[in-house]
Design goal:
324 residues, mainly alpha, 9 helices, 3 strands
Amino acid sequence: MPKTPVGPTTTRKTRRSSRLNKNQDTPFRPPETDSAPSRLKKRKPVASERTLSCTDELESVVKPQPSSSDIRRSHRITPAELIKREKILLKNEIDHKRRALELDERALQVMKKEAEVSLMLSQITQREAAASLAQLEEHFTCALCCEILAHPYTLNPGQCGHTFCALCILKWFFSRLHFHCGSWHESVDCPMCRSLLVITPDRTPRSHATFPFVPNRTVAAVCESLIEKLRWAPSSTLVVKREDSEGAWGLGWASCSRKKEASKEADEKVDDNADISSWREGGFTRTEWLKRDGEGKQEMNRIARDWAKLNCQDFRELKQKLGV
């Protein structure tokens, strides 16, 4: 019989047999039933999500894009829709025209109201100007020149108190001066009430209390304010004078008399407007008043300043300068 070899081969066989025997001795344990299905359940939704995402991507890639012709066909409008849209546009156009007309009417109304307000304001200013002129002519007129007071001065005696223009009262005062001797031999009186003024002494220096004139600043301020109102008075439309023969004939004597009265009122209105216009900036009456006011102020201030030292020769020169 052949001899079994002794060596490493025998050790391997013994080792294998020992492992097999160990495996046979250990009982077989089947896999747990609870853990395997739970793993499958956890994995199933992940796999489904991945597949869904992949299918969506594939569909998006594979899905054909619509062409321009398809888009045009889809956007085509039917005749009924066109008619409907035209009706809507016509309606909107009519509404816009109506609103534009309403806005134009409102603008015309606003313009009419503005014209009425401006007319009322001009009428009010004209009435104020006419009232100012009437007040000036009634209360602030010089009795010597019959014009509006220019740089008014009041006479010195307390029982008199009458006020005149500076130039007018100077001319009146120096008209009583005797030219040859250059002095007043008689006392000068007020041209209105005949009250005697303070006698002018011949000797110098004179006292300023003997100066026969006192400036009336209150009257001057009132006159300047009223004249300033007339300066900016608005210009009014001119009223044309109508003849007595104009108009319808055969209406009787009463109608003719009414026409004459209306024509007189129109003439008076034109005259009032002419008087007011002469007091505006650059008007003749205003220019003359400013000239008289400036000259009277200059002469009166010079005489009042030098009153204490004026002699007979100075009085004669003043008389010649004033032209009296």
